[in-house]
Amino acid sequence: GAVVSQHPSRVICKSGTSVKIECRSLDFQATTMFWYRQFPKKSLMLMATSNEGSKATYEQGVEKDKFLINHASLTLSTLTVTSAHPEDSSFYICSVASGMNTEAFFGQGTRLTVV
Amino acid sequence: LAKTTQPISMDSYEGQEVNITCSHNNIATNDYITWYQQFPSQGPRFIIQGYKTKVTNEVASLFIPADRKSSTLSLPRVSLSDTAVYYCLVGLAGGYNKLIFGAGTRLAVHP
């Protein structure tokens, strides 16, 4: 299966600052990537779908100006949490998909803590 | 997207077979059924996928009745390392289709 790498795996930032999370598909070209967030003991919640070269599609209730997604190439998508606040502290996970496969591949996740 | 219902939690003991059933009454004709496993602080990991009848791989079996309104993930002879959350997802297989996760089943395997 595909190898998906997220970086950083863990980050602590101060309230009001911005944090960028990278998601890389290491061994295949991902035309579509998905971003999820997960709170402790809760399920994954889809935030947005990013397509290479176009604007991301956000799920209802997700602020697009706060969670900036860029999918500039077939192997890299980034999620930037702008002006982070403590309530943004969560586990963020990316997923990659290809039209040729029948399963989605997930990154190892990024633990964001805003203090 | 078809909604899924699973038990919130299950307990088992090492060496036992564990069956987790998922209900998906509104499954569409083209939908596949996929199961993922998630350990704490890790991304989900694909376990198995099927469309109908029975699918088996090296880690699990998936049983799907003829009406496809439910499915059962079977884990043979579980070990402590199988303690995780298991998610049943229903939708078009792969590609550009977004995956919506339900609540999942938290499986605890005891010595």
- Note poorly predicted spans of chain A: none
Distance between the termini of chain A: 36 Å
Average pLDDT for all residues of chain B: 92
Low-confidence runs of at least 5 consecutive residues of chain B: none
Helix/strand class of chain A: mainly beta
Count of DSSP-assigned helices of chain B:
0
Write the element-wise H/E pattern of chain B from the N-terminal end onward.
Answer: EEEEEEEEE
Q: What is the 3D form of chain A? A: globular
Structural class of the secondary structure composition of chain B? mainly beta
Question: What would the keywords be for this entry?
Answer:
heterodimer, A: 115 residues, mainly beta, 11 strands, 0% helix, 51% strand, B: mainly beta, four-stranded antiparallel β-sheet, 47% strand, globular
List the helices and strands and how they pair.
The complex is a heterodimer of chains A (115) and B (111).
Chain A: E1 4-7, E2 10-13, E3 19-25, E4 32-38, E5 45-51, E6 57-58, E7 67-73, E8 76-81, E9 90-97, E10 105-106, E11 110-114
Parallel strand pairs in A: 2-11
Antiparallel strand pairs in A: 1-3, 3-8, 4-5, 4-9, 5-6, 7-8, 9-10, 9-11
Chain B: E1 9-13, E2 18-23, E3 32-38, E4 45-50, E5 53-56, E6 61-64, E7 70-75, E8 84-91, E9 105-110
Parallel strand pairs in B: 1-9
Antiparallel strand pairs in B: 2-7, 3-4, 3-8, 5-6, 6-7, 8-9
Description:
The complex is a heterodimer of chains A (115) and B (111). With 115 residues, chain A is mostly beta strands. Chain A has no helices and 11 strands. Chain A has strands spanning 4-7, 10-13, 19-25, 32-38, 45-51, 57-58, 67-73, 76-81, 90-97, 105-106, 110-114. In chain A, strands 2, 4, 5, 6, 9, 10 and 11 form a 7-stranded mixed beta sheet that branches. The mean pLDDT of chain A is 91. With 111 residues, chain B is an all-beta fold. Chain B has no helices and 9 strands. The chains are: A mainly beta (115), B mainly beta (111). The A-B interface holds A 1, 4, 6, 31-32, 34, 36, 43-46, 49, 51, 91, 93-95, 97-109, 111 and B 32, 34, 41-46, 49, 87, 93-104.
